[in-house]
User: Fold Pyridoxal-phosphate dependent enzyme from Sphingobacterium bovistauri.
Amino acid sequence: MHIYSPEQKIEHPLYSLKNLEVYLKRDDMIHPFISGNKWRKLKYNLERAKRENKSIIVTFGGAWSNHLLATACAGATYQYKTISFVRGEDISNPVLDMCKLFGMELRFISREEYKDKNLLFENLENKTECFFIDEGGASLEATYGCKELIDELTNKYDHIFCAAGTGTTVAGISQGIADSELKTQLHVVPVLKNGGFILDEIAKYNAPTDQITLHLDYHFGGYAKVKPELIDFIKNYIQATGVMIEPTYTGKAMYALHDLIQKDVFAVGSKILFVNTGGLTGLLGQLGKFD
Ligand SMILES: *Cc1c(COP(=O)(O)O)cnc(C)c1O
Assistant:
């Protein structure tokens, strides 16, 4: 399937003040539900499921997971039944309701049970028909899909910025940078506390880490946590650019980019690409924070 994810130059007073060119890779435009990096992460997993003649995709996630919704929609699109193990008590929210609308079967399980995903998979009734996809879509196949982002680029960039949860997406991007022999520096913004583990994740996929800079101070207290300055920043960014970002991933990474620009970390004339990984459906649970 052909995807649409243009590179868009963004006009912003800060960029002209500091003489920088900042582009967005609009992965958020790939698909409204199979959004951004989740599309890239599912691509080769679904191909493998097809090769292995599996008919059921089984995956895992929290109650607001962009990955669950992406899997639910991809399942409906490509004729797979989908089952997900959802961490925590039985609840309903707009994201889970949309998962169900796409036909996904939700199984709520305790945080304790959730820890052993392999056991949950092994105990499935019709295991031989099932294909396992880890939380967030994390897998070697997922890195192959993310690597393709680099092949699509029409400009050469000095720096690429990207948010990281599991680190799978940046592992793929890092591999792409190496394979294309680019000098680009990859700036990774973990959205969880103690995000140093991201480097181990990248190394686990045998992707290079020498052109990576980790920015560990932009988690704002932890996963899906926010602070007033983050909320204000996101509001201002959306109003200055017309591009929607959200507080869990892209908002934190964009805050990091702007903070580092303000601190004159980048040489005058630098060309920077920010990967807009999408995930806007998560906003449905966070709009109240913008009041
Ligand atoms: C899942 C997600 C990420 C994190 O991707 P990883 O491969 O887990 O690091 C980043 N941005 C958005 C919008 C996401 O939904």
Remarks:
- Residues 36-38, 66, 136, 163-169, 249-250, 277-279 surround pyridoxal-5'-phosphate (CB under 6 Å).
